[in-house]
Model the fold of this input.
Amino acid sequence: MNRTVKITLIALLVIGVGSYTYLKAQPLVHGPEIQVFSPRNGTMLEDPLVGVTGTAKHISYLHINGRQIFTDEAGQFSEQLLLYPGYNIITITAQDRFHRDITKTLELVYRPSLGQKESRTHSEGTLVEQEREAPLGLRILHN
Done:
């Protein structure tokens, strides 16, 4: 075989091995990834129960508001959360095996729909019901 052919074959082999190594090392270099499908950040909701769904890649641990959750084989997660009336912050944190973290934060507003009542008990033991009268105001009823 001619010397030029040998050099060309060796160069192609080195390029092939280098490309393969680069592609396989990408997950290690980039660290964990989180993609949230729903709900969208800044959403105003009228239902207190919200489903948080998304995917997480290259992770060892996944937490929503400090509680560990799990993904399926494809890296997808789905978790139901109960919102408080008003402003809510949901924090999704992932960590890979090299202890690199990534955090996604969702800011949601739960605003009960018109006519929906909420009951709470004061520290004195009295029951207070709140009824939505108008989008901007609350009427408090004491029982």
